[in-house]
Design a protein that fits this description.
This protein is of the alpha+beta class and 482 residues long. Helix content is 43%, strand content 22%. A hairpin with a 2-residue loop joins β10 and β11.
Length: 482
């Protein structure tokens, strides 16, 4: 009897650890997907020409519809102090009532330019959704030191930056308002990657993450969570989320962490490690079974064992599904940006000869505008299938976001790289997408580079430069760098 009781407690503890790991993986996956969506918004301004920027609401709408937590995208364009008036003439075409303003730290809303050193500012120039909550943000710029540190970090790392917990301006300017959001800043560079055009800001309601986290907990009341932000500037309010019954639990503790770009979230879990209702009933029946016949004991023990195995199998299946979702693009089924970076890192660490190819679909926005977004999605899936079916299992194909793809494959020399790059380019051009009995033609601009000892970031930059050269030569081109 005591043995079964202790066995149940031990099994509950193991399930608790597995569930905690699953919850952490789910949280990381949800945040990374939002960061990828915001990166796609940044890519719209980075690769598109200014005449196309007016189409931002259409593009942003397709991104926000894929997320329950990403509530707004803001384009903050870099503007010199001398150009502010001219810039607002352009803003007033869409937002005639917009005024330049900022909200200094611990101060009320302040109109006009307040920077002391006449440095450029990043002005909220366009926003989506364009509703009554968001449009008052047009004309806003940040005058706080924290934003300047973010810009400096962009120039050093080239990576997005995530804020601590904040009050959303969409909710209220009141300093006493609850902090329910965070900002993801994504750099938008000039074509030569040496300076910033501006910043794409994704506004995320973090309570959506935690609602999904709690609602998806298979152990229900037996598991409580606290999430603590250990990143920069989080000291005054580090607790991102805490279950309402956190202080009532005195049982098993488990701590893990999730890295989100420049921040590290510590996730603490507690379980009271008590038997659930089913387990308590099982022990009662087991007690009476001992007083009657041994066969009943054997039968009950068998039921308990099978049920434990079922729960463990279900948890294992869900964990595998989450691992897959965290490393793959949900539209094409290809590897995502994080997964392909891991592949490249492994190749570099093993010092294996390989090549990196990156390509964009030429005039993909025109395909979406002409045929529609469902047809555009079909083009992305078609190209993903072409690459997977043609290149085989020994080649790693990924969708980086939007209409950008990359391929990592083992190669020894520049001639082999040139040959396969041309084959891929010709394959896409001669394999139109067939959708609803009509064909959509597409071409790609491709840049490829052979690894010669560079770091990950150096290699990615070289491939991006080769791709950019293909675009500047008129698109539908292949550029190879040895």
């Amino acid at each position: 009897m005591r043995f079964v009781y202790l066995s149940d407690l031990d099994n509950n503890q193991k399930n608790f650890y597995k569930e905690a790991d699953r919850q952490s993986a789910l949280l990381s996956m949800l945040i990374e997907k939002d960061i990828d969506f915001i990166g796609a918004g940044a890519n719209f301004y980075q690769v598109g020409s200014k005449k196309d920027w007016s189409q931002f609401p259409l593009f942003a709408d397709s991104l926000l519809h894929r997320s329950n937590s990403l509530i707004s995208l803001q384009w903050m364009e870099k503007v010199e102090e001398k150009d502010i008036d001219e810039h607002f003439q352009q803003i007033h075409k869409n937002y005639p009532l917009a005024k330049l303003y900022t909200v200094p730290k611990d101060q009320p809303k302040t109109y006009g330019y307040v920077m002391k050193n006449y440095e450029p500012i990043y002005i909220a120039t366009d926003i989506y959704p364009r509703d009554e909550k968001n449009t008052p943000l047009i004309g806003f710029y940040s005058s706080r030191e924290r934003f300047n540190l973010v810009v400096e970090e962009f120039l050093t790392t080239g990576r997005p930056s995530v804020s601590d917990k904040i009050r959303l301006l969409q909710d209220s300017l009141d300093q006493s308002a609850q902090k329910t959001g965070m900002l993801v800043y994504h750099p938008v560079f000039t074509s030569d990657k040496t300076a910033l055009k501006g910043v794409m800001v994704g506004v995320v309601r973090i309570t959506s993450y935690f609602d999904r986290l709690v609602n998806s907990t298979s152990l229900g009341e037996e598991l409580v969570v606290r999430i603590i932000d250990t990143g920069f500037d989080a000291g005054d309010d580090p607790i991102m989320y805490q279950s309402s019954t956190w202080n009532n639990f005195k049982g098993v503790d488990y701590t893990t962490s999730v890295k989100i770009e420049n921040r590290l979230w510590k996730i603490e879990y507690k379980s009271d490690n008590k038997l659930n209702e089913y387990q308590r009933l099982t022990l009662i029946w087991l007690f009476f079974g001992i007083l009657t016949i041994s066969m009943l004991i054997a039968a009950l023990t068998s039921v308990v064992t099978r049920d434990k195995q079922r729960i463990e199998n279900l948890l294992e299946i869900r964990t595998k599904e989450l691992r897959y979702m965290a490393m793959h693009d949900d539209l094409t089924g290809l590897l995502n940006r994080r997964a392909i970076r891991d592949v490249i890192t492994r190749y570099i660490e093993a010092e294996k000869p390989f090549a990196l190819l990156c390509f964009d679909i030429d005039k993909f926005k025109q395909i979406n505008d002409t045929y529609g977004h469902p047809e555009g999605d079909e083009v992305l899936r078609h190209i993903g299938h072409l690459m997977s079916d043609t290149l085989g299992n020994n080649v790693h194909v990924s969708r980086l976001g939007g209409d950008e793809f990359s391929i990592v494959l083992k190669l020894n020399n520049i001639d082999e790289l040139t040959l396969i790059s041309e084959q891929i380019h010709d394959l896409v051009a001669t394999s139109p997408t067939v959708f609803n009995d009509f064909e959509i033609a597409q071409t790609i601009s491709l840049g490829a580079v052979l690894w010669q000892g560079e770091t990950l970031e150096e290699l990615l930059k070289a491939a991006d430069q080769a791709l950019y050269q293909s675009k500047t030569m008129g698109r539908n081109q292949v550029t190879i760098r040895g």
